[in-house]
Design brief:
Blueprint: H1 3-10, H2 23-27, H3 52-55, E1 74-78, E2 83-86, H4 89-98, E3 104-110, E4 121-123, E5 128-131, E6 144-147, H5 150-160, E7 163-165, H6 167-176, H7 178-201
Antiparallel strand pairs: 1-2, 1-3, 3-4, 5-6, 5-7
Length: 202
């Protein structure tokens, strides 16, 4: 994967701008309200892929359970060995934007078609992405599923529609669809809170 191209894509979200302080500046900030609060909280890990679900159980950006959403979960390891285990490519886009001064060393995504649980994670430059298929996905209106085999991805495309792309294109689509995704997530969470309140009152 071309790291510089991927880093350029992270700017599309508008979540990190030139006004953000550098890593050195951020580390000097000790309070919330600064980019320092978004630095991955887990200790540096030279091998984050090992037992990733046990080590990174909850997505730090939305709180979703990564074991439950293992078919869409992702993992990024930055150059300083800090890692973010997230639930989806939507939240990966957030991590890359908020950690704009950290260069990704490796990014892994799941093989959606695998028959084992949890789905194995592979480097994203080895994956084929299927966008916009009629397959349920986490945190996004436009589904984005990754496959280890391009031929299997084509089989899913024949059954469920969509467009085959590489990781960089899928990440770009995540940024471009961020506004619609956030609106959908807010609506879904409001509905869950309403149902929970009704159940509590009933």
């Amino acid at each position: 994967m071309k790291r510089r191209e991927m880093l350029k894509l992270s700017a599309l979200a508008g979540l990190a701008s030139a006004a953000l302080p550098s890593v050195a500046q951020a580390e000097s900030c000790q309070t919330d309200g600064t980019p320092n609060q978004f630095i991955p909280k887990k200790a540096a890990d030279a091998n984050p892929l090992e037992n990733d679900i046990e080590k990174y159980q909850k997505c730090p950006y939305c709180g979703m359970d990564r074991k439950e959403h293992n078919k869409t979960r992702m993992l990024v390891q930055y150059s300083d060995d800090l890692a973010d285990g997230v639930c989806s490519i939507h939240c990966l886009a957030l991590s890359l934007s908020l950690n704009i001064d950290r260069e990704p060393k490796e990014i892994w995504g799941p093989d959606f078609a695998a028959s084992v649980e949890p789905r194995p994670l592979l480097p994203v430059d080895k994956l084929t992405y299927l966008l916009g298929a009629d397959l349920k996905h986490a945190m996004t209106k436009k589904s984005k599923h990754s496959f280890a085999s391009a031929d299997v991805a084509k089989e899913f495309q024949a059954k469920h529609g969509g467009t085959l792309v590489n990781f960089n294109d899928a990440l770009r689509e995540s940024y471009l669809g961020m506004a619609d995704d956030v609106m959908m997530i807010r609506k879904n969470r409001a509905e869950r809170r309403r149902r929970a309140m009704e159940k509590k009152q009933g």
